[in-house]
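From: lab user (bench 3)
To: helpdesk
Subject: output format question, protein + 2-acetamido-2-deoxy-beta-D-glucopyranose

Hello, I'm new to running complex predictions and I'm not sure whether the block I got back is the full result or only part of it. Here's what I submitted:
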Amino acid sequence: MDEIHIWVLSISLILLLHTTNSADEAEKQALLNFYQRLSNGTHPIDPDFGWNASSDPCSDRWNGITCNSGSFIKKVALEGLSFNGILDANSICTLNSLTVFSIQNNSIHGEIPTELANCKQLTHLYVNDNRFSGSLPPSLSRLNNLKRLFLSSNSFSGELPDFARISGLVTFLAQNNQFRGEIPAFDFSNLQQFNVSFNNFSGPVPELNGRFNDTSLLGNPSLCGKPLPKACPPSSPPMKQRSKSRSVERILMYLGYILLALVFFSFIVYRIIRRKKKRESKSNNSKTKKEVVTESKTKASSEYSGYKTGGSRSEFSIPSSTGSGVVSSALVILSKSKMRDLTFEELLKAPAELLGRGRYGSLYKVTFEDETTLAVKRIKDWTISSGDFRRRMEKVDKVRHPNVLPAMAFYCSKQEKLVVYEYQQNGSLFNFLHGTQSEKNFDWGSRLSVAASLGEGLAFMHKELYEDGISHGNLKSSNILINNSIEPCISEYGLMVIDNKAISSVDHGNSYNAICPSPGGPSLFKDDVYNFGVILLELLTGKLVQTNGFDLATWVHSVVREEWTVEVFDKALIAEGANEERMVNLLQVALKCIDPSPEARPSSQQVANMISIIKEDDDRSIVSET
Ligand SMILES: *[C@@H]1O[C@H](CO)[C@@H](O)[C@H](O)[C@H]1NC(C)=O
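Helpdesk reply: Thanks, we reran it on our side. This is the complete output you should expect:
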């Protein structure tokens, strides 16, 4: 508890919005509503099927539900189960993390609701082989994460939304419907599967980039142009038709303007009459009006500071007063938008909880009365001058990546160096892998995503900070935090400098650098790559880096040398049936990273590229493995 006195050094700090995860209960209820509508209330519920209020979709493994780490539902697949109700998009889109949604091969009827566009994370959408009808809502083209879209074998009609806007689309299957109008100008160089056969499409076929032939366009008698045998007629007749419909459009438009003008005019008349009436009762009203104004002001300012107020507490609008002039110069605030001054007394009163202590520093969690929390890293024994430290922090702050946690403020004196971060309540990757509630749902897909995101973040930071020679210096799974959107974030970037004498940059006893000490300089970056490789090994094996006498890297090397490669993988991954080839590919990337010779290690950019290729393969295969 004597550590608390360190807070005396800084007089004002920052507070942040403390968001709580949406209750699982709401998602469960939404799923049940969705199921009710989909099954028309009559689907016989097999007792082993799950989907009842007394169990949990993730831990009780409801049929067709796949969750990722942290019990977020990422996939709902109810296929070939004779559902004959309708699609309740409002309910299903309550699931914030839903990426794969399949209800293919049922007898679901009705239209695709426009609210389906609220499932923003969707990458795979399969509604094929049902009895859907009507036209697709234009809002569907806002699903810009979509990779695969299966609409085939329904009774859809009308024109297609502008799916060409979705640049990442790789599969578009719409055959066997009654779609009409022209085919949107997809980017055919990206599409891998495309079929619009047996519809009523008309007009010219867009440029297919030679990737598809007429078998993707069968049974559309009004289509014309390459690669179909039927040539398009000279462009004049369609133009005429078009201009005719254009002039109708124009008339409608003018009518609209006239209507608008009328509405506006009557509104003004209404206001004039009202104002007259108001004047009569003015005296009564003026008081309440004032109150409304103050209230909305408070609201705006608290929203601006990202601060969650528990009611209308007036002190939020009062600027911190007591003696902030002297010491505040010592605390350098980096992200102004997200904070609010805090008085010294408040700070002092706030309890600090020690989260971890290592050879090179300690980490504290500071909780304020209103439950706002900050993480503060206190660095020990770093012989860097205040000026250098400040320049370093400012340089790192200029480089922002979604998978790297920016510092919010720092303090520097001869004895003390503090760096303040937003507290991440979801803990670290280390907890996810080895913690007490070690996530049984931390599946292969999630681990690969984590690896890919971290690889990108690290490569980006290295590229931007290469000239300045600022590497991370202390990369390890306990420094990888899981943020509110369950994305991994590299924290404590650049807070450690290894000088040539240092054996290891690592505290908390995980001294993997000790295995291959390196001479500093540009190889600082290669040290990060080494440590990143160790994180990949942790993801693949689920094992701790070091426990009495056991060294993960050495162990993996020995197992691979004996050609028992499969033995290294986490049993949970094997049990889940994760694709072995891709796990081996990722293992090979990890082994390159932990090469004893820094020169032989790939750059972080090369690592990121290799992982992203594995991830693309994996994304592509989700369909076939469904
Ligand atoms: C497109 O769909 C039609 C109808 O199902 C099928 O006959 C045709 O072979 C498909 N074309 C391609 C390229 O898959």
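A quick orientation on your result: The CA atoms of residues 11 and 325 lie 9 Å apart. Let us know if anything else is unclear.
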